[in-house]
Amino acid sequence: MDNIPAPLLSPCSPWQFLYMHAIRDWPPDERPREKLLRRGVNALSDAELLALFLRSGVAGRNAVDLAREALAGFGGLRPLLEAGQTAFCAQHGLGVVSYALLQAALELGRRQLLAELAQRDCLDSPSTTRAFLASRLRHLPQEVFACLLLDNHHRVIAFEELFRGTIDGASVHPREVIRLVMQFNAAAVILAHNHPSGVAEPSRADIRLTRRLSDALALLDVRVLDHIVIGAGDGVSLAERGLL
What's this model's pTM, rounded to 2 decimal places? Predict the structure, then answer.
């Protein structure tokens, strides 16, 4: 290349320029951080958002290049964010610091949803309730049973995981649910568990368990408002199915 006269060099397109240079050499409007500040977070692609957490590239690859490769390697944003530390750090250019930053960002999002629920009636915000439960349970490799404990205005007091099992199911003991309700002095609960298979369709065992817990908690004048089964999407409500 050094011996070729400059006029004979093929000009590169703007996108080729971005791929060939470090982000600090990009035009200001194209750098992810500056682009976010000028045009808003929605202006960034998945790769550009991820690059903000990676912060720097490696030899021959800038942060956006690494982000694109990581998204392709994991098959998209969601599987990348739900990957465990070992799998995440095994991807070229990713490491423990990036993993920790992303996990912190995800937890901030979950806590923001929980804070929103604490200010609102869960029955008036079913989409937020499902989004929060999905953020907590959807990515787990084993079945987990949890409770949203509510006050008498149906606002969230706490979210507690109670039982963990294998992908075949979790053994849920009513006495432990009762103990938790009494500990937080809850007036109502929303039950939730995940199906690691990704299929959120309630099983007969799920329906039997829900009715069993409803009967037990009714003795304490505590209502079971819903039981939400989390799969690949936001979840299926047994209350909406008329199964409570």
Answer: 0.71
| CA-to-CA dists, residue 115 to 35, 120, 121, 145, angstroms | 29, 9, 12, 21
Is the separation of the CB atoms in 167 and 197 below 8 Å? yes
pLDDT in tens, 198-242: 888 998 989 999 999 999 999 999 999 999 999 987 789 999 899
Pick the CATH number of 121-237 from 3.30.420.40, 2.40.50.320, 3.40.140.10, 3.40.190.10: 3.40.140.10
CA 208 to chain centre: 29
Query: What single DSSP character describes residue 58?
Result: B
CB neighbours of residue 59 within 10 Å: 4
Can you tell me which residue has the tokens 């987990």?
144
Buried b (16+ CB within 10 A) or exposed e, 6-32: eeeeeeeeeeeebeeeebeebeeeebb
